[in-house]
Prior knowledge:
- Helix content is 56%, strand content 18%.
- It is α/β, with parallel strands linked by helices.
- The strands form 3 sheets. It has a 6-stranded antiparallel sheet with strand order 2-1-4-5-6-7, covered by helices on one side. It has a 6-stranded mixed sheet with strand order 8-12-13-3-14-15.
- Helix 8 packs antiparallel against helix 9 (253-286), helix 14 (425-440) runs parallel beside helix 15 (459-472) and helix 17 crosses helix 18.
- The longest helix has 47 residues, at 330-376.
- It starts with a strand and ends with a helix.
Amino acid sequence: MLQALSIQNIVLINDLHIEFEEGLCVLTGETGAGKSILLDALGLALGGRSEARFLRQGTQRAQVIAVFSLSPLHPCWQELEEQGLSYENHEIIFRRMLESDGKSKCFLNDQVISQGLMRRLGREIVEIHGQFDQLLEPKSHLAALDAFGKIDRFPLSGAFKSYQDAKEKLKTLRETLDKAAERQAFLHFACQEIEKIAPRAGEEIELEAEKALISHRAKIAEALIIVEQNISSGLSSLSQTHKALNRIQSFLPERVTPMLESCDLALVESQEVLEGMKILKGEVEDSPHNLEALENRLYTLRALSRKYQTEDPISYLLEVKKELSALNHPHDQLKEAEDQVKKAKTTFIEMARCFSEKRKETARALEEAMGRELLALKLEQAKFRVHFEERSEEGWGASGIDLIEFYIQTNPGTSEGPLAAIASGGELSRLMLALKVVLAQSGATPTLIFDEIESGTGGAVSSAIGVRLKELSQKMQVLAITHSPQIASHGCQHLRVIKHMSEGETTTHIQNLNQEEQHEEVARMLAGEKITDEARAAAKRLIGDTEWAQAKSL
C-alpha cells in the first residue's frame, strides 16, 4: 500500500507530506484546489514523463517521494533481486528529482535506477483510473480477461513463435532456391579452384619454416661447420679425459666414479648434438625447393584464404561440398520446410483453440461476476457480455486467434454493443468501476486510485459507488478523488485539498480531517459555498456516527 507521499516544489505545492491509511481514502476539495497536482506528482514518482512545467515557479529543483509497503509475495521483489537492488522490511521508496531544464533522476531505496524500470515497477504497485479508462480500448479486453482467469499465455506465445520461425525459414529457403543456379555456379568454381590448389593441413607453417631455412642457408651452413668442428674437438678432449680418469679410478673409486659417469654422459650428448648437426646440414644442402617456388606457393595459399574469407580453406571446401549437395536436392529441403510449417501451424491452432475454450469458460465467470457488481451499482437491467470472434490468419498473434471485446446491453429490448459506444457517461463510470472491482481482485496491484469515478452520476448511484469502493478497500488500498459527498461519506480516511493565497503566492495544502472536520467537509459538498445547519444534519445522517467507527476499525 501507499504509506506516504512527500512533494516539494511541484506546481502549487511548496512542501507537502501525506501519510495514508489502509482502506478507502477520499480526497476532496474545491475545483482548482490542486487535486490533479497530487496525481501528477505521484505519477512522477512512479516513472511518469517529467516536464519543466511541473516545477514550482521560482525554484530550480523539485522532488517527489512515494513510500510503499508490499506483501512478501508481491512479484516486484523478484525483479528487484534480478536487478541487484536491495530492500528492507518489504518497503519500496521511490524518489524522483526534477531539474529546471526538465531533466530528472530516478531512485529506488536511494539507488539510482532507470525511468523505464521505475515506470514498470510503478505499474505493478499502483493503478490510476480516470473517467476515460484504458478499459474502453478493445485491445485491452483480451489481456483483462486472461488476467481475470489467471491464464498463462507463455505456452501459446511459444507455439506462435515456432510457427513464425518455421514460416520465416521456409521463406528464406525459397529465396535461397530462387538464387540456387547462381549460387551453384559459384560453389562449383570455388570447389574446383580449392581442389586444384590442394592445400594441406598446416602447409603454411611448414613452408614458412622451410623459407626461413633456405633464406639463411649460407649462414646456417657456416655456423654448422663451426659447431661441428668444435664438437669434434671437444669429443677428442672428452675422450682423453675419460681415459685419464679410468686409469685412476681403481685408486679413488668413490671420488672418480661420479666424474666418469658425467664424462660418459657428456660424450653421449656431444655425439647426439654432432649427429643432429649432420642431419640439419644435410637438409640445408639438399633442400629440394628454391626460395622463389616457396614464396609463390605461400602467395597462392594466402590469396585463396583472402578470396573466400577463410583461415582454413580445407574446412571451407567441406562446407562448399555440403552446400552443393543440399542444393542438388532442393525438393527434399523444400518439402521438409513446408512440413515443418504445417506441423507448427497445426500445433498453434490446436493450442489456440484450447485457450479459446478456457477463455470462454473464464468469460462466463466474468459475466456472472459483472452481473453481481452491476446489480449493486443500480444497473439492474444491464447485461455485460464478452463478445468472441475468431481472427483471420493475418490477425493471429502471440495471444492466439481470439478477437475479444466487452459488450453491454443497458436495458432490455435495446441492442448490445461495445462499452464506449453504448453506455452513457454515468453508466460508463459504473461499468468501469464494476470491471475494476472484479478484475482487481484477481490482480497483484495493492493500490487503486480512482479519479472522479462518479462522473455523470449522483444521489443513490453515487452512494452505491461509494459502497463498492469501500467494499473493495477491504481487499486493497483504494484512493478516490471525488466531488461526490455520497462517496466522501464512506472514507476511512478523508483528506481535504486546500488552495491558500498569501502575499501574492498561491500554495496547495492537505488537511487530514478528523470526524468533526469530515462532517463539515461533507456538509460543504452538499450545500455549496454557504454551509447550513440543514447541510450539517444531512452530512451527519449521510456519514453516521456508527459508520465512522466502523470505517476506522476496518
